[in-house]
């Protein structure tokens, strides 16, 4: 275990006071996580009305080291059983429409690939990872929207070798995300979340941990008082 004072030193100076009292195991977990995250692969989902599928995809994205997720919806409540708390460890951004979401990502230098059964679709292994990549997934039945297809830089599809020529969207997403993330890790060089994104995430994390600590304290004090 790293010395507690060293952990606090790893926080931005203006957040160190907020970090005092946070369990060192939790603080170290968060800091190490941010140091190992991919900031150059992001997850995008259009059809968020299927909460279970999107929650499962978020869980896969987080497990493979993706930090940033974009959901085309004004509000999102994850399915607890499927997400397993993964949303708490990601930067999730909501968008009113697909076009503005893609435009924002492209302005930041991301190539956008939609998951689609297109004849020209690349396999996950073929997808170029020399630049930041955004992977956009649609719904189980309808797939990605025409807007997404028109604005995307290309398509990606998991090759099928059997009689069953389809996968559940969350399973397909897991296959694509894992392959692209590993390929990007092997070519991107430095990892980690830095700058404003790191600061904002740490601030949210520290406030959340302090609220959780206060809730536990209130719970035990209530039991003692009873």
Your description of this structure?
There is one protein chain. It is built from 9 helices and 6 strands, in the order αααβαβαβαββαβαα. By secondary structure, the chain is an alpha/beta fold. α3 (24-36) packs antiparallel against α9 (195-225). The longest helix is centred in the last third of the chain and has 31 residues, at 195-225. The two termini are 37 Å apart.
Number of strands: 6
Percentage of helical residues? Answer: 40-55%
Largest sheet: 6 strands, parallel
The poorly predicted ranges are: none
Strand content: 5-15%
State the helix count: 9
SSE sequence, one letter per element: HHHEHEHEHEEHEHH
Overall SS class: alpha/beta
List the keywords.
226 residues; alpha/beta; six-stranded parallel β-sheet; 47% helix; 12% strand
Question: What is this structure's SSE topology?
Answer:
Blueprint: H1 4-9, H2 16-19, H3 24-36, E1 41-45, H4 51-63, E2 68-72, H5 80-83, E3 91-95, H6 98-107, E4 111-115, E5 133-137, H7 146-151, E6 154-156, H8 169-188, H9 195-225
Parallel strand pairs: 1-2, 1-5, 2-3, 4-5, 4-6
Helix pairs in contact: 3-9, 4-8
């Amino acid at each position: 275990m790293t010395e507690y004072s060293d952990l606090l030193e790893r926080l931005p100076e203006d957040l160190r006071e907020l970090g005092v009292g946070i369990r060192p195991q939790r603080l170290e977990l968060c800091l190490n996580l941010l140091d190992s995250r991919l900031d150059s692969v992001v997850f995008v989902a259009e059809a968020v009305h299927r909460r279970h599928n999107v929650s499962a995809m978020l869980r896969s994205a987080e497990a493979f080291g993706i930090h940033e997720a974009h959901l085309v919806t004004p509000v999102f409540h994850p399915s607890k059983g499927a997400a397993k708390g993964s949303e708490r460890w990601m930067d999730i951004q909501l968008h009113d429409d697909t076009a503005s979401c893609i435009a924002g990502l492209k302005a930041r230098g991301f190539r956008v690939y939609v998951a689609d059964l297109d004849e020209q679709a690349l396999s996950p292994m073929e997808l170029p990872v020399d630049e930041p990549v955004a992977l956009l997934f649609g719904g189980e039945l309808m797939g990605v929207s025409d807007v997404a297809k028109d604005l995307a830089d290309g398509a990606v599809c998991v090759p099928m070798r059997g009689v069953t020529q389809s996968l559940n969207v969350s399973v397909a997403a897991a296959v694509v995300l894992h392959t692209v993330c590993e390929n990007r890790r092997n070519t991107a060089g430095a990892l980690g979340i830095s700058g404003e994104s790191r600061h904002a995430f740490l601030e949210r994390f520290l406030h959340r941990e302090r609220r959780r600590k206060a809730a536990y304290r209130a719970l035990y004090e209530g039991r003692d008082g009873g």
